[in-house]
Amino acid sequence: MALVGLPRVDRLHMADLTLPASHPRAAEGTCSVFAYVVHHPDGPVLVDTGVGAGNELIDRLYQPRTWDVVERLAEVGVDARDVVTVVLSHLHFDHCGQQTRLAAPVVVQADEVAAAALPRFTVPEWARVPADRLRTVTGDAELAEGVRLLHTPGHTPGHQSVLVEGGGERLLLVGQCAYTAAELAAGQVPVGDAHDPSWHPAATASVERLRALQPTVALFAHDASFFPLPAAPVDHRSP
Q1: Among 34, 40, 173, 236, which residue's CB has the most CB atoms within a 10 Å radius?
Q2: What H or E segment, with its residue span, contains residue 30?
Q3: Per residue in 92-120, pLDDT tens?
């Protein structure tokens, strides 16, 4: 079904984390975690799934206050069973922890899946996706009409952002390629990124790439601010 203008996008407030002293952004104290649902004519697309439950290390380090993804979807009028695709920006615990609550295919960059299997990383840092639901892509890819995945490595090797286009406007779901609107505006790689110094050039290039897109509005995984001020109607409910 053809798009007419930008589809509605809802922000889902999935968790609040307390940042441990070892975290590079510890001075900020807490961190909110957001997912997004794109109300596409072909069916809802969910971008990221928040923090899961039952990991002792995560619970101790981050003391997460979490919300259920199925309930959050219902609050914006979406039955979780109707979600046609789950896109994971990356496989850190705070972005994919509840993907097992859904039945839809899960789309991840192939580079991200490979990185998650490296022995240098622990399970709490990188989460696994059930093989029968996993769909990998390599590089940029069209997900649906007007919805495109952008390979934006740096924060992780296979990080991806989501670009939604319609009616001459562009809505960008940044993920964690840039942590805040202010950092994207300044062309700044997020504080503490990339996790491996060898990833830093890719992180810088990805931030510049997103800035060059000149989106009508950009939304973030850990920042409730907009970049720039929204010129298009966007629902960003965060109950």
Answers
A1: 173
A2: strand 30-40
A3: 889 999 998 999 999 999 999 998 887 76
Strand partners, 46: 37, 86
Residues 236 and 219: beta-carbon distance below 8 Å: yes
Whole-angstrom Cα distance, residue 100 to residue 98? 5
Please name the amino acid found at residue 47.
V
CB 176 within 8 A of CB 89: yes
For 178-207, give one letter per residue: b (16+ CB within 10 A) or e: bbbbebbeeeebbeebbbeeebeebbbebb
Question: What are the Cα distances from residue 125, in Å, to 16, 58, 60, 174?
Answer: 17, 9, 14, 20
Structural domains in the chain, CATH included, are 9-219 (3.60.15.10)
Residues 42-74: tens digit of each pLDDT: 999 999 999 988 788 888 888 999 999 999 999
Q: What is the DSSP letter of 78?
A: -
The predicted model scores a pTM of: 0.89
Contact 25, 192 (CB under 8 A): yes
> What SS3 state is found at 170?
strand
- The closest of 28, 52, 48 to 37, measured between CA atoms, is 48
- Which value, in Å, is the radius of gyration of the alpha carbons in the chain? 16
Could you tell me if 16 and 32 are in contact, meaning their C-beta atoms sit under 8 angstroms apart?
Answer: yes
